[in-house]
Amino acid sequence: MKKIRDNTIKLNQYLKLMGIVPSGGQAKLMIQGGDVQVNGMLETRRGRRLVPGDKVTIEGKTLEVNLDNNKDQDVVIDSPEETE
């Protein structure tokens, strides 16, 4: 796993690291296409720096950024409960 040096990560790198997209090109398309929110706001900059505690929402799932290299888990996934 890639080590985080300054406790920040670019949005496009984060999407790749988390396995949401297979490539940087796909990340760019999703971000610029308006499919990604950071902390509840639409984000279209792939170079947006994320810090621990930021919440990235994509495809109905919210990931909370955790860049602590000493932990096994990098995100907390909050899925909205489905009601029928």
From TrEMBL:
CDD domains: S4. It comes from the Bacteria. SUPFAM superfamilies: Alpha-L RNA-binding motif. InterPro entries: S4_RNA-bd, S4_RNA-bd_sf. Keywords: RNA-binding. Gene3D superfamilies: RNA-binding S4 domain. The keyword Protease does not apply. Residues 9-68 form the RNA-binding S4 domain. Pfam families: S4_2. The keyword Ribosomal protein does not apply. This is RNA-binding S4 domain-containing protein. It comes from Nostoc favosum CHAB5714.
